[in-house]
Design brief:
Layout: H1 2-5, E1 13-15, H2 19-22, H3 29-35, H4 49-52, H5 54-64, H6 69-79, H7 83-91, E2 96-98, H8 102-105, H9 107-113, E3 121-124, H10 130-137, E4 140-143, H11 144-157, H12 165-187, H13 200-205, E5 215-218, H14 220-230, H15 232-236, H16 241-259, H17 264-272, H18 278-296, E6 301-306, H19 317-321, E7 338-343, H20 347-356, E8 359-364, H21 370-377, E9 383-386, E10 396-401, H22 409-412, H23 417-429, E11 437-442, H24 445-458, H25 460-468, E12 470-473, H26 481-494, E13 501-506, E14 524-528, H27 538-547, H28 550-554, H29 560-576, E15 587-592, H30 602-606, H31 611-614, E16 617-618, H32 623-639, H33 652-656, E17 659-664
Parallel strand pairs: 1-2, 3-8, 10-15, 10-16, 11-13, 11-14, 12-13, 14-15
Antiparallel strand pairs: 4-7, 5-6, 6-7, 8-17, 9-17
């Protein structure tokens, strides 16, 4: 929005967000539906005063021309208006829609909001996340409780709306099938499809197998399982597979048609001003769309029936012991039991978007390698731009440090590690200009908490505060983030001659993704360790196994091990890029892991860092020489500082440090 203000364009636009983000009184979906149930017949007299006044907010925003989130929040507070419904109203004639990724790639959300992609240009910023977003958007999890509650409500709905029968039939079939599968898995005593679960080591290295009381179907096994779920009688008669598939798709499509957000039934319910039936039809629609996607792309999915959706694949006795005990569909099973339909290939979600939109532009500083991205997304980008950084070498100090050794999980668990990290920071931060900011990226929130607790006990925290001023730690969740960031920036702005701030942050967290720490906000960045995805995460193991399959390799996907490494280094490069944000900026960057130094992996790992940086990595055998060189770097900058940043629509550095890939319906020549 700030960049839009610098242009002559004044499009009609909206900034979409969730009810949890925008609702001024923090109501749930069901509570909001109840409060606004009369909005169709009495739009100014519902039980929600904020909804009734949304027109005042709409009028002010339309007159404002260009406004951002802060402007909207101030206006909403002044008028005591509802931001959530106001943004939905602005969507109706918007020429520009700003929204989270999943609003585009999750078909359920896109359909519910009525976002039309035809004749639209879809621009995906921070595009390195698009693979994960698309996999998540095409995946779905349904708890046993949601299925049961859906059946219960639909049994009442059909008494008033007979056309809801097809939704009830689908939900009843899915609920009954899942219930049976969980009971059978429990009775199997941890054996699934005749395979033993095995120990932790075998699960980490061999094929992924289900944990205790679970059932797992991969690829076309999942398709067969769902065909039996939807056509139990027909499948048991020995009918040919195509006949069973046609019947199953008919059951699913009828459920989708009646539960669709724009269906005649949903319109009838909306016209009553009541919410009765909305919840169950919404659950039916989401589940049916996911089943339809799996049956259409069976090789790209796994189907997983689990007693605890929060801990799938766990073999630890703690998790096994805390799971449900009891008979069929007993309440002791809890809300955690359910079925997961996980998509393993992003193209399942990306393909419909690229097919429908006029063009798709993906931009990020860490898209490479483009070939693997094209394979994962199932498209070929006719236009690709990859440019080097334009910041002169003299403004960048990049160094690999081995002071903490190979920063693997074992090293992280070493009780001496927090003290070693503190000594390293105290040594190098003495050479960094006072009154500036420094960032330290680490793999996990739990590790950051342990380090901060150790520093407080040992006195290292007081030493660091005496040197750099304020020491902060990023916390999970959005509640405290804004306050932490404000405190960090405020500490630097408040005292340029002394003080400053140091923040410990996590890879893949809010600090590492897309935030701008230009100039004095980040004169030093320490990237500690390499953020490989958790090897124990069952989704990660399934994805690695999938990418190693012949089907995936023939489809252009990289091997599972390479995919695993690229996931780590995309997150790593995002963290590295928080500093040096324009052509006159400067900073020091440290790769704190021996795997960048003298190990056999060093050259391969350095080749994975961002192209503009990889040839600048230095390595010193002596720490005194290292610290001295760092001090000389900042002394040279102080003696001959770069010019001030230029206020332009886009700085050269912003343009040059981004990799852009464009997919369009036009030919390259036309583009």
């Amino acid at each position: 929005v700030k960049e839009l203000q610098r242009t002559p364009y004044r499009p009609r636009y909206t900034i979409l967000g969730s009810r949890a983000q925008y609702c001024p009184i923090k109501k749930s979906d069901d509570e909001c539906a109840d409060l606004t149930k009369d909005k169709a017949s009495r739009p100014l007299e519902t039980a929600c005063s904020y909804y009734n006044k949304k027109g005042k907010l709409l009028t002010e925003l339309r007159h404002a021309g260009i406004w951002d989130m802060e402007d909207m929040a101030e206006a909403a507070d002044a008028h005591r208006s509802c931001k959530f419904f106001a943004m939905k109203d602005l969507l109706a004639d918007a020429e520009l829609v700003l929204c989270p990724y999943n609003y585009i790639f999750d078909p359920g959300i896109r359909n519910a909001l009525g976002i039309e992609l035809g004749n639209a240009a879809v621009i995906i910023d921070e595009g390195h996340n698009v693979e994960d977003v698309c996999r998540e958007g095409a995946s779905f999890e349904a708890s046993l409780k949601d299925l049961r509650d859906g059946v219960d409500e639909l049994e009442s709905v059909v008494n008033f709306y007979g056309e809801a029968q097809s939704a009830l039939q689908f939900m009843s079939l899915m609920h009954g099938w899942l219930n049976r599968q969980l009971d059978q898995a429990k009775n199997d005593g941890g054996r699934a499809h005749g395979r033993g679960v095995g120990g932790f080591a075998s699960k980490m290295s061999g094929p992924v197998v289900p944990g205790p009381d679970e059932r797992l179907w991969k690829g076309e096994e999942g398709e067969r399982a769902l065909l039996h779920a939807l056509c139990p009688t027909l499948a048991g008669t020995g009918a040919d597979v195509e006949s069973v598939r046609r019947h199953a798709l008919m059951v699913v499509d009828k459920a989708i048609a009646v539960a669709d957000y724009s269906s005649p039934l949903r319109q009838k319910i909306s016209d009553t001003g009541k919410s009765f039936g909305e919840s169950s039809l919404g659950k039916c629609y989401g589940t049916a769309k996911a089943v339809r996607s799996l049956l259409t792309n069976p090789r790209d999915y796994v189907l997983y029936a689990v007693p605890d959706l929060d801990h799938p694949g766990e073999t630890d006795s703690y998790f096994a012991g805390r799971r449900f005990a009891g008979g069929s569909d007993s309440n002791t099973r809890g809300q955690g039991a359910g079925v997961a339909m996980w998509c393993l290939r992003p193209s399942v979600a990306f393909g419909p978007v690229s097919d429908e939109a006029m063009c798709v532009i993906v931009t990020s500083g860490t898209l490479s390698p483009i070939g693997s991205l094209e394979g994962e997304l199932g498209v070929t980008f006719p236009v690709k731009v990859e440019a080097p950084h334009v910041v002169p070498r003299r403004q960048i100090h990049v160094e690999a440090l081995d002071a903490l050794g190979d920063f693997t999980a074992r090293a992280q668990d070493n009780p001496k590690m927090p003290a070693q990290l503190a000594r390293l920071l105290l040594k190098y931060l003495r050479a960094v200009p006072r009154g500036t900011g420094s960032l330290v990226f680490l793999p996990k929130y739990a590790l950051i908490r342990r380090i901060m607790e150790d520093w407080e006990r040992s006195g290292a925290l007081a030493e660091l505060e005496a040197l750099v001023g304020t020491v902060l730690a990023e916390e999970p969740g959005a509640q405290t983030f804004a306050a932490t960031l404000d405190e960090f920036r405020g500490a630097i702005d408040a005292d340029k001659d002394g003080g400053g701030a140091l923040m410990l942050a996590v890879y893949r967290g809010k600090v590492s993704e897309g935030l701008d720490f230009k100039d004095d906000f980040a004169r030093a960045v320490f990237c500690v360790g390499i953020p490989f995805p958790s090897v124990g995460d069952v989704k990660v193991r399934l994805k690695r196994e999938y990418n190693n399959s012949r089907y995936a390799r023939d489809s252009g996907l990289m091997p599972g091990g390479d995919w695993y490494s690229h996931q780590a280094f995309r997150a790593y490069n995002q963290a590295l890029g928080r500093c040096i944000r324009h052509q006159h900026d400067y900073a020091s960057i440290f790769l704190v892991d021996a795997r960048f130094c003298m190990s056999e992996e060093a050259d391969r790992n350095k080749a994975m860092v961002s192209k503009w940086m990889r040839n600048l990595v230095q390595r010193f055998r002596d720490s005194r020489e290292s610290v001295g060189t760092l001090g000389e770097f900042f002394q040279r900058i102080a003696a001959d500082p770069p010019g001030p940043p230029k206020e332009t629509t886009h700085t050269t550095a912003q343009l040059a440090t981004h990799t852009t890939a464009q997919l369009a319906t036009h030919t390259t020549a036309q583009l």
